[in-house]
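Trying the structure run again after the queue cleared.
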Amino acid sequence: MVEKVILLIAYPGCALISIVGPLVTSGRLFQIMDKVLHNRWAYSYYYLTTEPVTLFGTRFGETPNDNYMIDSSFLYSFLQIGVIPFLIVTTLMIGMICYYVRNEKKTELAIIISFCVLGLSDPFFFNLSYKNLMFLFVGELLYFQTSKPYWFNKGLPAKEICILRCGERRISLDTPFYGRIKAGLCRVRDIVTDRENQLLVLFLGIWVIVTAIILACTWSVHVTGAVDRMEEWEYFRRVLSTGMFSGIFGVVICIIAYWKKGGMVKDENHA
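Done. Tokens:
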């Protein structure tokens, strides 16, 4: 029981420590935390007291020197990405952890908790260069949940969404357009379910090929071999992210092609 409680509060607990901790600690305790985290506690306090809290994120202003940076994934998402995205991601993460705790997936939970602890001193959660495994777990959970037939037959897409009600009159989304959206979601689900291995190979193939081509063409310009050089880190981040988005774009095009092909086959059978 205690173990489950610790697992369930790991993510929100780490987020609370990162966001509230620097503001409520002072004196000797603040100095200890700052020393343990290699000045990250003081930098977090600086950003929390000088940057505004916004709904959808902000660009930070000039800092006293180049050493000032947010090295906390939770604080980074709260301040730079914004409160609403922070709440959405937090909800997804907590839901995913609850699902794994309920199903006793101990290997996945060990990885997740390790990432949570590491996220206290690194912003990689929301940095596109380091592909966070926790998001893969969230994607797996969403895929399994939305792949169940009842999700489409009895779940939200099958229900009439009432926007405004006045007595016996009401405005809802139970319209032909809404029906087309539901049918489209079902169609995408069927395509991905039937060809998931092909789409995965396509995604990984495009990612590797595009990344390799960009590196081959631009390596000599951006990589000089200097140690701990921020420009080179950003270069590798951009290259990896470009390869990833290229793979996603290729998968989307492939799904559209399968969709069109299926529609043509249905039209021929109907004729």
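The chain is about 70% helix and 5% strand. Worth checking whether this holds up in the mutant runs.
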